[in-house]
Design brief:
The complex is a heterodimer. Chain A is α/β, with parallel strands linked by helices. In chain A, helix 2 crosses helix 3. By secondary structure, chain B is an all-alpha fold. Chain B starts with a helix and ends with a helix. The chains are: A alpha/beta, B mainly alpha.
Chain lengths: 520, 93
């Protein structure tokens, strides 16, 4: 089934049920569907049609949810771009997808306008929280569309194997790759998640994760599919607000990443058992440290804790049934429903228990490939055991035990996980090289109690150049998304190199881990 | 003795606004909406306030009305510490 049909059916079956709570806004299914219909009509009238790409450059807000369903109602394809992206990155995504339209917020207008100067494909820019004509090419105020357009989405002949979204993810080379996801992929993923989390219309999920991130986005997609309610927050900056929301909205599901959990667990006065309605907590994006799991289990004695593993290319792959967790805190579990997972050697042959190899995922949720990037696609989607299919090679090394549980070993590439987000060192290094006076740089991860890994730049200044850590961090803040900005900078006279002169980043990385372990 | 507003402004500018002009942040601007500070940053701000102004911040005070702008933080610090002089002394000492 197409994804927008889920919303339309909910709006018919349960029009007055609250679908979304975000800030002061509370939207019922009927209201959400009506607003999405109006925006869909507005997009269509401005030339957006089946198969076109539309970028949604917004943080967690009701307009982002309205926009994603509106785009699908025109038969088009959406990409949600992290609201902390800078204009170069946004332009790169707009150009890569040849986006026809952009939906953004008045606050983000300077970044969006600068990106549009270098993104000729974009004809329409719809701006939320703005009155009158926005000062951007093709600018229209969202409020005008929502008040003037009829609640009549255009007819389109799209079917469920058409693309629904392109999620941009960091590649190890630093160039973003667009993960192509169809409506059918979303249905398969959301259906599997709803099955193991036992989601239904009684659920109220509190989402503090950015919906530009697949794990955040699926909180919305699963909830609409199952008729639940999502409480959408902009982040975890004010933990007291989150505690209030958990209590006042009778939240039943709370998805976390380790950084969010660490912030939550820093609160001093939380009493175990304060959240009796909270049915489950989930963790994904990076492994939750075992002491955190133990404290969460103490704090939420009536909640189930689900540890999960996934990647944008298939969204979810493995989950740990909560009853098994205490017996195997170091495992990320087994395949999610209707998915097959196994470990292979370098020739693609299945390996038995205890042997380390690459994790392979089969299932209806696996992406269709990277948007217009055959070279990267063939590295991930490879012929499997059946002649009629391609399977997903995750790039992550795992082993299994005798009972079929999976254990993460390491990544095959050098991506650093910070705050649960993927940081390609190369992208950060490229940004730092743009700064005058930098001769060499290597970017590595340093263990950090809140971030998982903190980003560290090891810099060799050019001869005679004077650089400060502030200059480097400030430069990165202006040029990179916030999660990629180094927390630490170290200056050195030289970096270790291979015989051919290539910087040995892995050696510096290993030294950092060793130094941390010795100090702790 | 610096007013509380300047101390907080200096902390924010020095730690989160590298290279940006301090004047671009008004006392009433929301840290979060402008993307000046994120979740981890608010925790650092809390640690800074506890240390500089010798105050104890309770969990239920981690709210935007106390912590989301220079003006809100300054008013909150004054409410908690009772006087500007004490805060200034704490900072100096």
């Amino acid at each position: 089934m197409r994804v927008e049909r889920c919303l339309e059916e909910r709006a018919r079956a349960m029009p007055n049920k609250v679908a979304l709570i975000s800030g002061e806004a509370r939207l019922t299914y009927a209201e959400l569907n009506d607003l999405a219909d109006r925006l869909a009509h507005g997009l269509w009238e401005r030339g957006v049609s089946r198969g076109d790409r539309v970028a949604i450059f917004l943080d967690n807000c009701p307009e982002a949810v309205i926009a994603l369903y509106a785009v699908l109602k025109t038969g088009a394809v959406f990409s949600i771009v992290n609201a902390t992206a800078k204009s170069d990155k946004l332009a790169e995504i707009l150009n890569n997808s040849r986006a026809k339209a952009l939906v953004t917020h008045a606050r983000l207008l300077p970044v969006a306008a600068a990106a549009l100067d270098n993104a000729p494909s974009v004809d329409v820019a719809i701006v939320a929280h703005m009155e009158g004509e926005p000062p951007i090419r093709g600018g229209v105020a969202l409020a005008d569309i929502l008040s003037e357009e009829p609640a009549a989405p255009p007819e389109h002949s799209g079917i469920d194997i058409d693309l629904a979204m392109i999620i941009y993810t960091s590649g190890s080379t630093g160039v973003p790759k667009g993960v192509m996801i169809t409506h059918q992929n979303i249905s398969a993923t959301a259906g599997s998640i709803a099955e193991y989390l036992e989601n239904d219309e009684k659920d109220v999920v509190l989402c503090v994760l950015p919906i530009s991130f697949g794990y955040g986005l699926y909180q919305i997609l699963v909830s609409v599919m199952t008729g639940g309610t999502v409480v959408l927050e902009k982040g975890m900056a004010f933990p007291a607000v989150i505690v209030q929301k958990l209590k006042n909205e009778n939240v039943t599901g709370f998805p976390l990443v380790p950084t969010i959990a660490a912030i939550f667990l820093q609160m001093k006065d939380l009493e175990p058992g304060s959240f009796p309605h909270l049915r489950y907590i989930t963790n994904a994006a990076a492994a939750m440290p075992v002491p955190h799991i133990e404290r969460l289990v103490d704090l939420f004695p009536t909640s189930k804790f689900y540890s999960m593993y996934g990647l944008t290319e298939c969204m979810r792959g493995l989950y740990m049934p909560p009853d098994e967790l205490i017996r195997r805190t170091d495992s990320v579990g087994r395949a999610i429903p209707n998915t097959e997972a196994y470990v292979v050697d370098e020739h693609g042959k299945r390996l038995g228990p205890g042997l380390v190899g690459e994790l392979v995922i089969r299932g209806a949720h696996v992406m269709k490939g990277y948007w217009e990037n055959e070279e990267e696609t063939v590295k991930r989607l490879k012929p499997g055991e059946n002649p009629w299919e391609l399977v997903l090679h995750t790039g992550d090394l795992f082993r299994t035990d005798e009972e079929g549980y999976f254990y993460f070993v390491s990544r095959k590439d050098d991506i650093i996980k910070s705050r649960g987000e993927k940081v390609p060192p190369k992208e950060v290094e490229n940004a730092i090289y743009m700064l005058e006076g930098v001769k060499e740089v290597a970017v590595v991860g340093v263990p950090d109690p809140i971030l998982g890994m903190a980003i560290k730049a090891v810099v060799v200044p050019a001869e005679g150049a004077v650089l400060s850590d502030r200059e480097i961090i400030g430069h990165c803040m202006r040029n990179l998304e916030d999660f990629m900005v180094p927390k630490h900078v170290e200056f050195r006279q030289e970096l270790p190199k291979t015989d051919s002169g290539k910087i040995r980043r892995s050696q510096i990385q290993a030294e950092e881990i060793k130094a941390y372990e010795e100090a702790h | 003795m610096q007013p509380i507003e300047s101390q907080i402004r200096n902390f924010i500018v020095e730690n989160y606004m590298y290279g940006q002009s301090p004047e671009s942040l008004r006392d009433s601007d929301s840290f979060l909406s402008l993307g000046v500070i994120d979740s981890a940053g608010i925790l650092e701000l809390v640690a800074y306030l506890e240390e500089t102004f010798k105050m104890q911040i309770n969990d239920d005070e981690l709210l935007p009305e106390n912590l989301d702008s220079i003006a809100q933080v300054a008013a909150y610090v004054r409410r908690k510490t009772g006087s500007e002089t004490m805060a200034g002394l704490a900072h100096a000492g």
